[in-house]
Amino acid sequence: MVTQTKYKIEGMTCDHCVHHVTQALETVEGVSSAKVSLKKEEAVVKAEEGVSVETLKAAVAEAGYSLVG
Ligand SMILES: [Cu+2]
Predict the structure, then answer these.
(1) pLDDT for 9-62, tens place per residue?
(2) 1 CA to middle of ligand 1, Å?
């Protein structure tokens, strides 16, 4: 089952950041889509239930940003 969750994202300053965070999230196995908003500083992530917040945090951290669960 795919669930949709909203997370706060810190550290984004421009559209490139949005792109990086989107890519980072969508590369995680089990994530079907990530809609990232610079203005709202958030990401709406659609993912399989098995995908943990820690995994998403790690992926975003690797790209240079912070996902706040
Ligand atoms: Cu940027």
Answers:
(1) 999 999 999 999 999 999 999 999 999 999 999 999 999 999 999 999 999 999
(2) 33
Q: Which residues form the domain of 11? A: 2-68
Question: Is the pTM above the cut of 0.90?
Answer: yes
The total of structural domains in the chain comes to 1
CATH number of 7's domain: 3.30.70.100
Cα(27) to ligand 1 centroid in Å equals: 19
4 CA to centre of ligand 1 in angstroms: 25
Enclosing H/E stretch for 55: helix 53-62
| Reported confidence tier of residue 69, pLDDT bands at 50, 70, 90 | confident
- Mapped onto helix, strand or coil, the DSSP state of residue 38 is coil
Tell me the sheet residues that pair with 9. 67
